[in-house]
Amino acid sequence: METGFIIETIVKAVVVLAVFSALAGFTTYIERKVLAFMQRRLGPMHVGPHGVLQLAADGIKLFTKEDFIPQNAAKPVFMIAPIITAATAFIAMTAVPFFPEFELFGYTVRPIISDVNVGILFVMGVASIGLYGPLLGGMSSANKWSLLGGARTAIQLLSYEVVSGLALLAPLMIVGSLSLIDINDAQAGGLGDWFVWTQPLAFILFVIAGFAETNRTPFDLLEHEAEIVAGYATEYSGLRWGMFFIGEYANLFTICFLISLVFLGGYNDLWFIPGGLAIILKVMFLIFFFLWTRASWPHIRPDQLMWLCWKILMPLAVINILITGFVMMF
């Protein structure tokens, strides 16, 4: 039994790593096509039909590009930083239940690598550690633009973490558990049981914090091309540069799964739609929403992010917790 559990866990880990690495790369193509459509452009068109093989071309370019390390950089830190970003993005996925249980050749498969009883705390904690990658990369690059990008990482981390934690506290008070499976099961009654209806403010706050956590527009302060060239990634090239962005897109999937599980009914059946397909549709819509926002909203300044998080969003999250507590008491 122990050997079977170990083999099953290894297989799940390999599948998650392979699938989401491929999806992270494919999402870059989808993003370029969606942004092009919204801006009346064509996007990638030359490699394969409608540019669908652009992903393969980009992969070949990253594998063959020179791995350049600046002369005055702190080389060990410079080399480790991309690994931190990519590794933490996939480690955070270990406590996420992606689908409901299903049978395969008579064997019951649970699509979660490790069902820890503090799953959501583990996911948020590990995902936030991922921002140390850009921070260390920017600080170790011996480049002023990279250093500015790294400094903005610290600002962003201090700003959104408080909001995301407080936003999740209200629905967790209702469920009484930190397990993502328990949170999903609490919404098993159908569309009316989704927490987005009872906790709309928490939902909005967590989505906004999700934009900051995944370094997406309008909170892409770390690599603001118009101000700091490419920020923390200015001196990176080849596979090290690619690891940063694989981690970023993997985090995007993690956040979309969290939003779906906590607020949008998770992988429970939705009318005639089976639960596995339902959560895929929710995650696809949320990713499209993230891309849509990038095409529609301008960047903001670091001071505007701090002002928004500390003076607006955090007080709203605290008020929401107090209201939830009073409602539960009476």
Automatic annotation (TrEMBL):
Name one molecular function that GO assigns to this entry: quinone binding
What protein is this chain from? NADH-quinone oxidoreductase subunit H
Subcellular localization is given as: Cell membrane; Membrane
An example GO biological process term is: aerobic respiration
Stored NCBIfam families = PRK06076.1-2 (NF004741)
Pfam families cross-referenced by the UniProt entry: NADHdh
* Membrane topology value: Multi-pass membrane protein
Annotated InterPro entries: NADH_UbQ_OxRdtase_su1/FPO, NADH_UbQ_OxRdtase_su1_CS
**Record field: transmembrane:** 6-30, 77-98, 118-136, 157-174, 194-212, 249-267, 273-293, 305-329
Q: What is its EC number?
A: 7.1.1.-
Q: Which GO terms describe its cellular component?
A: plasma membrane
What's the chief localization of this chain? membrane
Q: According to its UniProt entry, what is the function of this protein?
A: NDH-1 shuttles electrons from NADH, via FMN and iron-sulfur (Fe-S) centers, to quinones in the respiratory chain. The immediate electron acceptor for the enzyme in this species is believed to be ubiquinone. Couples the redox reaction to proton translocation (for every two electrons transferred, four hydrogen ions are translocated across the cytoplasmic membrane), and thus conserves the redox energy in a proton gradient. This subunit may bind ubiquinone.
Quaternary form?
A: NDH-1 is composed of 14 different subunits. Subunits NuoA, H, J, K, L, M, N constitute the membrane sector of the complex.
EC class: translocase
